[in-house]
Fold each of these.
Amino acid sequence: MKNLILLSKTAILFCLLSSGAFATPKVNINTEYYSIHGATANELRNEMNTKSAIKQSGNTYDAYTSWFVNWRFNWNENNGQCAMTSVKSTVEVNFTLPKWENSNGAAVNLKKRWTHYYNALIAHENGHKDFGINAAKEVENHLSVLSAKNCSRLKSKANSLGKKIIEKYVALEKKYDENTNHGMKNGAVFP
């Protein structure tokens, strides 16, 4: 019985490996900063409120992450069946973050508060990035196993499925912001 369990675990691992479970999208990250200055917590908050260009639904946000997933695929037609031979995706991630320019001369306590906030902010924004990366992985995994009667149908089927996967992750990302109150529940709040 022990050998059978080991064999089953090996078979499951083989199925995961052969199904593309380890998709590796290419990830390009760009970070843009907006400069802020201040010697007090209130000054820093006012600077972020004033200088942040991140405005949505009447609110100003300290940071923003956007991602865009692009995919390409190749197929082969054989015996009246068209099947995928490769699927590759790219994720473009853009971060917009505040940068405290005159922090060197600031009080130690203020620096500690900022560091705590900024680490929570970065963690929250990395959560957004992960939605894009996970979407790209799912696109690669799901598209790589597709086949169809003809290649035109396969192309249409693949792009339609890719768009549905992206829509799913956009909805999950919105829920993430609702659940974390845009990271505030996890410490991304200043002062």
Amino acid sequence: MSKRFKGKTCVYCGLENGSTTGDHVFAREFLPVEHRAHLPQVPACEHCNANKAKLEHYLLTLLPFGGNHLESARLLTANVPRRLAKNVKLHRQLAGGRSILQHPMALPFEGRKLSDLFMLITRGMVAYAFDVQIPQGYSVNAGILTERGEEITRPLLAMKANDRAIASLADGLIEYEGAQAFDNPFLTIWRYQLYGGVLFADENSKARATKNIWAISAPEPLPGLFAG
């Protein structure tokens, strides 16, 4: 491990001098081996790193099923069978909840895990891209937007920003765009897209089918913008 990450403040939980590793904000396994160099890294404590890895394992197993990128099929064939073979419990959990849609199928999916992971990813991306750490008292909301959330959030990302981060990793397997407010460095908005646009939907919420995952860091929670 690079010494530059050891003993720093964990970007996820704020534990001072607590980082033991440099965590890849987007897990390397999301990408083919040849595209894993120079990914965003941030300091993380052992506890946060382990919890994030559990969320990543779940999503890495399911997301390739709904991928629309040319590499999705290769990742599905190469990685998903062995992940499922090691996690019998995951088979039993694939019921109810939000769906990943890939015509003509809909795969049951736990949307809470998507939200939890992208809350952490957003904390990591703010630290990596804007060189500030979101205070622990701030609210980080992430996931699929409701219809009202789409109407409010999409124009905000297009507004003039103090700083902006835009990237496409592995020829579009992961794309992100983030903007930082002028008057508050911790107020940010992010749009993510995975595997060429995995289509998410939830029949039990006000969210429409969408290929985008959104996140906002703000001083207070944002009720009504994200699907529950």
